[in-house]
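User: Some background: our group keeps a shared notebook of sequences we're curious about, and every so often someone picks one and asks for a predicted structure to add to the entry. Today it's my turn. The entry only has the sequence so far, pasted here. Could you supply the structure so I can complete it?
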Amino acid sequence: MTISRTRALLAARRALLWSAMLVMLAHPAAGPSAPAAAAGRTIILGVTPGVHEELAEVVKPIYEAKGYALRIVVFSDYITPNLALAEGEIDINSYQHYPFLEQFCADRKVNLVKIGNSFIFPMGIYSRKVKDLSLRKGATAAIPNDPSNGGRALVLLESAGLIKLKPGAGWKATVFDVVSNPLGIRIVELEAAQLPRALDDVDIACINTNYAMSAGFVPGRDAIVREKADSPWVNILAVKAGRETDKALLDLVEAYHSDKVRQYAADKYAGSLFPGF
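Assistant: Of course. Here's the predicted structure to add to the notebook entry:
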């Protein structure tokens, strides 16, 4: 073989190699890495501090074993996680019950929907001043200032025998629906996250489980009264309307419902929260 012919063959081989490389660069998903790239989808989950964040961290490796990546974003209030969901800044959130979601969507004119249940976090009545509900006249009771949790707190105060609400008011009750208040209890409405810090200034407070636990309370031990295990205020996972059939999000719900998550909750939060699925 002549030198010139050898050079021509080498040049042809280099041309073929470059052509193959260009095809791979132009169509990167066509190669063996395509399934891995699809499985590596990152889902952003919004939660509030405390138990919701802890449960999300337990869910994370279970979910990622399915081939996804989970990014957990922690919000310090009840409003921002839904705003972020409506704006598409997160994919899903886990921190609220359905009445809260329903009220939020009505007030903010957004379309968010439930995709699955998580746990029931029973609201409780807490105090640093009294051990039971034998309150003095004119005692102060603090409740959350958002509509659904405020109504929920009023229902709890009614079930504890402290007040009586207008028939049929239910969780939509407001302080204006109180029709009987024998002790003249003064009801103060505060942001839910602020309630544990308000306990030095009020006699009792109706506090959501996640905020109570973040403040160091053990609901099953420290709550004077709390909702029962059959509470209708089961917490949910919510998504933007139209994404209810997104497999990645349904797989996250499935991870929340796993035996490992259920067992973790039973071991660490015995008597403080209950599976709602």
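Suggested note for the entry: The two ends are 77 Å apart (CA to CA). Residues 6 and 12 are 10 Å apart (CA to CA).
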